[in-house]
Amino acid sequence: MSAPSEFSTLMLAVLSILIVATAIAQLLKRKMGADNDVIENLIARINAWWGMVALLALAMLGGKAGVVILFALLSFAGLREFLTLTAKRRADHWALVISFFVILPVQYLLIWDDWYGMYSIFIPVYAFLFLPIIAALRGDTDGYLSRVAETQWGLMICVFAASHVPALLSLNIPGYEGKNVLLVAFLVVVVQLSDVLQYVWGKLMGKRKIAPRLSPSKTWEGFVGGVASACLVGAGLWWLTPFTPLEAAGMALVITLMGFFGGLVMSAIKRDKGVKDWGHLIAGHGGFIDRLDSVVFSAPIFFHLTRYFWSV
Amino acid sequence: MLRSIAAQFAASAIVLFARLVTAVRGIWFGADPVNRQRVYFANHGSNGDFVLIWTVLPPVLRAKTRPVAGSDYWLTSKLKTFIGRDVFNAVLIDRNPDTRTEDPIAQMVEALDGGASLILFPEGTRNLTDDPLLPFKPGLFHLAEARPEVELVPTWIDNLTSVMPKGEVIPVPLLCSVTFGTPLTIQKGENKATFLTRAQSALAELAEEAAT
């Protein structure tokens, strides 16, 4: 249990935001009546945020073990949602069992072991080549390519990309030793806050829809307002990171854009599969992927930019 | 005594396991989870089917809901007998008309008269085809005729066959749901074929409802 001192400052700020949000939601409930669907959903979302913040804070206090275990569990929950919707047949049973019980844990063990050379190719190379072999050996060719491709996609998104969040802990940045957990905090806070701010800006003044067929709630006003304000917050959080304020703003811009497009891509998949939410386990938000889509898309890019320009 | 403690422990473990693997959700679409005597009739694709229904029932209802299962399967080993008899308190019927000594309908009626609700798979066996349902066996009709006041609740189990296809031992974790439809009862003078068709289409419609 040793978090850098910046961590408590950040937690204090996040808790204040949550308290203010809870107060506003209760005020709105009193003003607009208890049976308003939007307010009810807002309250459910905020309540879920309390839980998610508590879980993340706990994981970060647990250091590397905490973060690796938390994201392994999130990968499990996400992969379960993803593979529930993908094409599969009885012949895929072993490929699916191996995805959950071999590939997922091995990927996180490699992250735990800081084995960069292996964890960055394990799923794109080894899983990519071996899983289709296992599926082919069962001899069922109906929809074969979609089946193996969709399974691989699930692993890339829910396990490979997601594991780049705890991978941040293995970066060796001069002058930043022992503080890497703050990079995780910066990424998660900026990306999630960007989602929230896009939602708020969209609700307050959203008019022109960006992609009505994909995601009816995404508007240009919400997008621009949300991304711009999240970048400002990101710049204001430079003290968490090895970046200067300007660099922090640039990084925040990259990860909020990736986060936005991640949400769009995952929405496209939901529409394709004919569902509204990925799951039901997070009240007000839907499934784990509904909450993690933006983090998952931004994490690998954030990891590699930071690794290339800052680590040794 | 020891056996019943072990059975309760095993029941909790099985429910926890079902939740960890499938995050199963009960959707009370046409019926409410109230304490009323019922026969839940469901599609059957996996040995875990009644575990899922059992898991989503509130504990009060769970305690008095007994699955109807084949003794030809559940009495074949000590462990299966323990799980079937002690943990799930199943009404074990012999599906083979040549060997059986007891009338399955009489056994089910006796369980109903004892105050229990039942979980019944009217397809009679696990459905391994690509069709959503196999033709219903007449058991549901005879049961409804014998106890017409008991509510028959169509119950659709979604996705469990992908979690654990026949012949596999390790389950794949995938989300499952159990949807409860609008209860039906047998009408006066309704004949067997009409009733079974009506019950089967109620379940088939529920399946489509659950998919949207």
Biggest sheet statistics of chain B: 7 strands, mixed
- Radius of gyration of chain B equals 16 Å
Radius of gyration of CA atoms of chain A, rounded to a whole number: 20 Å
The CATH topology assignment of chain B is: Glycerol-3-phosphate (1)-acyltransferase
Keywords (chain A): Membrane, Nucleotidyltransferase, Transferase, Transmembrane, Transmembrane helix
Transmembrane segments (chain A): 49-79, 91-110, 116-137, 149-169, 181-201, 222-240, 246-269
Protein name (chain A): Phosphatidate cytidylyltransferase
GO cellular component, one term (chain A): plasma membrane
Walkthrough of the structure:
The complex is a heterodimer of chains A (312) and B (212). Chain A is mainly α. Chain A has a domain at 72-170. Chain A has helices spanning 5-32, 37-61, 63-85, 93-112, 116-119, 122-137, 144-161, 164-167, 181-205, 220-236, 245-273, 288-310. In chain A, helix 4 runs antiparallel to helix 6 and helix 10 packs antiparallel against helix 11. Chain A starts with a helix and ends with a helix. In chain A, 43% of the residues are buried. The mean pLDDT of chain A is 93. Chain B is built from nine helices and seven strands, in the order αββααβααβαβαβαβα. Chain B has helices at residues 2-22, 49-56, 59-63, 71-74, 78-87, 104-113, 139-146, 160-163, 192-211, and strands at residues 25-28, 38-42, 65-70, 91-93, 117-120, 151-158, 177-180. Chain B has a seven-stranded mixed sheet, with helices on both faces. Classes of the chains: A mainly alpha (312), B alpha/beta (212). The interface between A and B is medium-sized, with 17 and 12 residues.
